[in-house]
Amino acid sequence: MKKWIAIAIFLSMSGCAVSPEKEPDAEGLPTKPEGLESRVNRNTVIDEEVLYLLMAAELAGQRNQYHLAMDAYLQAAKRVDDPRIAERAVKIGLFLKDEQRTREALTVWLAKDGKNLAARKFAVLLAIKNSDQKAAVENLNAMLADDPAGFEAGVLEMTKLLEKEGRTQFTYDVLEELAVEHPTQASVFFLQAVLASVLQNNELAQQKVSQALLIQPDWNKAVILQAQLAGRSGDLVKARASLEKAVKAAPEDRLLRKMLLEVLVNGRDFDDAIKLCQSVLEDKPDDAETLFTLALIHMQQGQPDKAENVLEKLLSNPEWGGQASFYLGKIELEQQHPDKALTWFDRVGDGNYAFDADMAAVSLLMNQKRFEEIEARIKRMDNKYPEQHLRILMVKAELYNQLGNYQEAFDVLTQALKDMPDNREVLYARALVAERLDKLDVLESDLQKILDKKPDDVGALNALGYTLTDRTQRYEEAAKYLERALSLQPDEAVVIDSYGWLQFKLGKPERALEFLRRAYEKQPENEIAAHIAEVLWSLGEKKEAKELFDSVYKKSPDDEYLLEFKKRFLQNGQ
């Protein structure tokens, strides 16, 4: 499912007719002297000096002498009754970032063609860049009067450039003055809503779009923006109401129906979402995006058979077949059919889901301890996905870790840190491998580096606190880290287990047992079971400890924590 459709769709238009960031060219100015007459009005008398200025401007432009070209065009523009010469001067002035001469050329351009929208846009841009609110309002007023239908699009076109220069707030303030002068212009309030959303002021954006809809209730673009803003604030009820209203007004608009579908899915209104999917598919049975959404809904409802039926319809679609295969693999994996899942993952091919499918296949094989196959796949992935080099290195390190080749895993992660010395995941992974190699100094250094950057990293706090508890007698330091982790995530089983183990090391077995049992209830892992068994053993509750051990050992006879407990406490069949 795609994420919420971004409000930025309203700002994704191209820049102004001529971008001031681009180098001007000689287009429109002929290379022959006689052709220059076609650049000006036929009713305009061109004297020899003007012809000379135009030729000089052209030659200067060809030689990249833009300051000279600008001077020549500007002088010619003042003497010829043709706005196109002034336009040329404005464009070169913008490129040169010569605001004084650009304004001078723009004044000439507007004097000769006051209704030219391009000229007005340039005037607005310059005014806003120079924080000249009066001039900006004056020129926007002119745009609104001369082209009310194109006003909204014209302003949105300019906001993209102004946003890059950090002028969004000033642009909003200019529109605020315009809104006072034109209280019945819905487009002005709509534009303010868009700018307020860019400024991350969601409440103000919603207020402004509501004003636009009071003036023009059936304006679908504003209704869509209202729904997007509601979705951004988490108000899915309001988003749904807005989109349902828009769909009712324009039942044939498939984009609106898909947006409503997204809201329904995010709100977990699955029954209504399925009905809407079916209505879309009635009009277009092969709509791949809707079919895919329907399949995901069935998966979330725990209806894998229905999801499979829908996904299979997408297999022949070249654009959607890959992700359909990927999700069919996930369904088979959830149903404990690893071989079928692997077949589907391998069918994904080279599309957008290729890397995810290969990673899923490796993870599946890792759980089955099919290490030789994993090695071969990792080599292929290294060649196939050079841009995913870091993630593949992490997989390679995990493979070595699973094989017990801890030094190889450590070396791979150390190599990765040369390229990304501050990467949290690599630091954390190397710290865990360092513990296996008794490199506690490296473990502490790596975890401390994570905490220096993010003091509230619960994973690092827990790992460091537990290691200090289990492998050293620095219990006071361990307590500092574990108490912090527990305060941040009081319901996290592994943190509760670590804190319980600390209590045991501090000589408080009854208190330790309380925490360890709570952790085991939340997450019945073998390591936690081994901790409970050891505490029970220390309290003389050997029968209960052995019963707990036996119950988990039957399920996981190869688990390292259980084997360690057996070696230490159950020697000679005790």
Automatic annotation (TrEMBL):
The keyword Lipoprotein does not apply. It comes from Methylomonas methanica. Coiled coil: none annotated. This is Tetratricopeptide repeat protein. It comes from the Bacteria. Keywords: Repeat, TPR repeat. The keyword Cell inner membrane does not apply. Pfam families: TPR_19, TPR_8.
